[in-house]
Specification:
The protein has 6 helices and 7 strands. It is an alpha/beta fold. The chain has a domain of 98 residues: Nucleotidyltransferase, domain 5 (2-Layer Sandwich), CATH 3.30.420. A 5-stranded mixed β-sheet has the order 5-4-3-6-7, with helices on both faces. The chain has a two-stranded antiparallel ribbon with strand order 1-2. The protein is elongated, with a radius of gyration of 34 Å. 18% of the residues are buried.
Length: 212
């Protein structure tokens, strides 16, 4: 607030009126209080950015790998990563000495292009993606609330018909490729993702594939 201090004029000439001298001093104390009030208001009302994370299902820790067939996986795909190479197989794993009805498991190589990994995931997870398109249309037409869409999409990802993904890496796999794979899995709206240890039989098959 502004204060005006009056200083009386000289008293030598009583008959003459002299202009009073005034000095102005600005008190900044209220401005400091206002600044703190505004700072407190913005801190309490601001929304801080949160890191975007993806939940992964990790298996129980094993002291030593067990050379057995992988557990039964309904509507699942397993990716094997090694350096700049990515291979996959669908369904259960069958080794050469324990073949399934169609023989031992064979690996298929793919890449991180739109016509490679993304197309593979989109084709196998069409159950979720097609139903997601229908829900998106309902949201745009104001027939479904955003919260309902989010809840039903999460429920859809967890259904038995939805695709499940297992990710296995050897000691040459790159962290960048693992992250790229997880990003593609997220784009394909896959809800169940599990990084698991590679079986010795899978590693042997992978090494054989890399030598070709």
């Amino acid at each position: 607030m502004a204060e005006i201090a009056d200083s009386g004029g000289g008293g030598h000439d009583k008959g003459k009126k002299r202009a009073k001298k005034s000095s102005t001093r600005v008190d900044m104390t209220p401005m400091v209080d206002l600044a703190f009030l505004l700072l407190t208001f913005f801190v309490l009302t601001s929304t801080f950015s949160k890191p975007k994370v993806m939940s992964l299902a990790y298996p129980a820790k094993m002291d030593k790998p067990v050379d057995v067939n992988a557990p039964k996986l309904n509507n699942g795909i397993t990716f094997l990563l090694s350096k700049d190479k990515i291979f996959y197989y669908t369904g259960e794993f069958y080794s050469a000495d324990r073949p399934g009805k169609d023989g031992p498991t064979k690996l298929t190589e793919t890449n991180f292009s739109a016509s490679g990994l993304r197309k593979v995931l989109a084709d196998l997870n069409s159950y979720v993606l097609l139903r997601k398109e229908g829900m998106v249309k309902k949201v745009k037409a104001k027939q479904m609330a955003d919260t309902t869409y989010t809840r039903e999409l999460e429920q859809l990802k967890g259904k038995p018909e939805a695709l499940k993904v297992l990710v296995k890496t050897d000691d040459k796999a790159l962290c960048k490729n693992f992250i790229d794979l997880i990003d593609e899995v997220k784009i394909a709206e896959i809800g169940v993702i599990a990084p698991v240890p590679m079986l010795p039989a899978e590693l042997k098959l992978l090494e054989t594939q890399l030598k070709k």
